[in-house]
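Section 3.1: Structural characterization of target chains.
Under the original work plan, the team committed to producing a structural model for every single-chain target entering the pipeline before any wet-lab resources were allocated. The record below documents one such target. The sequence was received from the expression subgroup and is listed exactly as submitted; it comprises 499 residues.
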Amino acid sequence: MNEESCDDPSTAGHPQHPAPRSTSVHPSVPSTTSTPLPSPLPARGLLPTGTLGGRIKERPEDFLVEELPLYEPSGEGEHLYVGVQKQDVQHVELISILSKHFNVPSRAIGFAGMKDRRAVTRQTVSIHLPGREPAAVQLNHPQVMLLWMTRHANKLRRGHLAGNRFAIRIRGLDPLKATTVWSRLKELARIGVPDFYGPQRFGYRGNNHVMGLHVLQARWQDALDELLGLRGSAFPERQRERREAFARGELATALEHWGKNDHAERSALRALISGRSPEHAVLSGGSIVRDFWIAALQSAIFNRTVLRRLEAGTLGTLLDGDRAYHHRSGRSFRVDASMLEKGSDVLPRLHAFELSPSGLMPGRDFAPAEGVPGEIERAACADFGIDQSVFANGSLAPTGTRRPLRVPVTNAQCEGGFDEHGPYIRVAFDLPAGAFATVVLQELLGDQMTEGAERDRAAEDRAERDRAAEHPAAGDGSLDAQGPPMTDAGDGTDGSPPV
């Protein structure tokens, strides 16, 4: 999985589920055949296609993210609020570090959004410490720093932030191209950006949504084959040996080849080796991973809705039957024809970016819009060969929500320059909670933009295997039953669970 903009208030109403009872299993149990799902990524953007290219995230300090708080802590209460800076550290690894430092279980730690690994990020977390102060204030860790501490009455929850401030250095571009980048950024600041989920939401294989559908449909062997085997989505060639070992039923051999950050894969293999069922193996990664997969399917469908509205020219237009999204409150209301007539206050609020059309994140508590907008939302589901019933039934069904089709880009800046690593173009901007900086960057730079994190993945994989060979007794860094670390996603806020 990948981490990215994941400050959505997304755990609301999502139940916790006990692990299934164990049964014997062999990975060669036949898998059902299914039609490959379409790409969850948009085929186009809002601006004319950019061709600048450029490279982002060549080093963590090139991608800075600072959380913008929704409120200030009161200074009193059972929860210790801590300002944290991390560099090149996965979100769930951060939770593990804080859990050990403050001597609390991971469930005692709250956060508003999960931040990207390959970045320097600042955010607030809460630690439930009723009636006691931390034994140690200073954290001795080379990549994590505690900036400040105070108290507050409630746990910090996902979505409890106003947004994120991004400052990003783009490499591989002539700094003189800053004028072109600035022109495109100003246009986005004027009209907003499509609220697409970025590629990080869907993982480096682009298949998190596939896993989500297998989980919701209880196709456990399909999920194992997708996660560990040769079937399903494309995978990096460096993984072929371990996947072939799984297909042959050589589970211990396959386990040896997965690195310490491949927590979902390692958890599933350990469960199979111990004789557990395919269902238990798939869900052994914990609720964070399971919910992230389901959220990716919701996100893929939402992206299709955004794309269809963009192609129809109605991304920023309210239609009869729409659910208008109020950006400040996060609530929506039905739009009828009378609200679109001259003299109504709805259209001025739309043009002032107070309101936007919304799209469905499918779930049991939310129905599609009406009229043409509803037809578009149902068609977005049909693109993946499913309908709303997939999200309406079963113990794992998410509650659902609505998300704006566009978001504002504010406090925009752009400049060219040089540093010890060479030339760069620096862009900075604010986005609301849950929005993806990489979507903005793709609008600015085009599809030829590349990420340094992807180029480093194979090298990290080899280094992890070398360390495991030198220290075979070392743990794999997983947390506990609350869920293991996820694979990175990449924007300032990594993936949210389903809503």
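The chain is about 30% helix and 20% strand.
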